[in-house]
Fold:
Amino acid sequence: MIHDISLKNFRNFERLDACFSRKINVFAGANGQGKTNLLEAIYFLGLLRSFRTSSLADLGRIGTEGFFLSATLDTGKGWKHLLEIDYSDKRRLRIDAAPVHKASHFICQFKLVAFTPGDIMLVTQNASVRRRFINMLLSSADPIYLAALNSYSDALKMRNTLLRETFDLGSMLAFEKILAENGALITNKRREILTELTPEMLRIFRSIRNDVKSFALKYAPFNGSEDAGSYLAKLSDTRARDVSKGYTTIGPHTDDFDFVLNGRSLRHFGSNGFCRLASLCLKMASVSVIAQKGDEGSKVITLVDDVTGDLDSAATDAFFETIDKSEQVFFTFTEVPGNGFFDCAEIFHIADGHIATH
Structure:
């Protein structure tokens, strides 16, 4: 669990230091005071990504150059890890004061699932939103997936450069081999996690709605992605087309998956309410499934950004039952609910970039 956190020049915080001694933590305060910024800082410490923006320039406090984040992780085994991120003239990462030169060696120190008001876009928007979700989920829990994704992304950039600029068959074949090996692994791990998420989502759906007969997360990788050999052959078959287009047209960077409820695609036929519920169930299922992965057991840190206000009683019960599987939870609220789940919570009041405990 996260024992403490420090922020310097991050979003609206000039400086903030906070300690967390309990499983359930609540950041309370009016809108615009920095509650979500704190969740974002925790997320960034876990994945070196924001759940709100792809621009690092948005993360630094206005008028400053760069930002600093650190957190101490309590392993529960009698020792702690210190994580530090310094973005100034360049990125500097440290674990226990030792420099870390690769992002993949910094990520995966703890598992993360974040609930945000924009989660409905996982169902309703384009494939890139769903790919980003599954990449972040697996990267948080599986170092092998993260390494494969980084190798694949690097090779994809180089192949695309060759397709657009100078075609060199020898270099092309070398990058295609990397794409095939890592792409097949990525595809298989995505298929595995979606297969694991499907029955858990169905269980959660049925605990909330009695009209849910069937549900599936339908994965749609390209034909020929099952193993590296088939993948490599497919890259060879599509090479001429890729040269004419100037980019790689097949691979996990083009994958998608669909939410199929009672035999119908929610993206095409689902109501706004059902799409929102499906996105919530996906995140809840993620907490349950990721909690069981790896040797650390249920070491999942869950971030909840004010998403429970519109839930009915059945959805609320299912939500808190699932969230309780987390090792540690951080909520944001304008006002702390009267729900008994929060009786033992530690409350932090946030106002204008400052924090106080209650």
Summary: The chain has eleven helices and 15 strands. The chain has two domains: 1-109+333-358, 118-298. The longest strand covers residues 2-10. The mean pLDDT is 92.
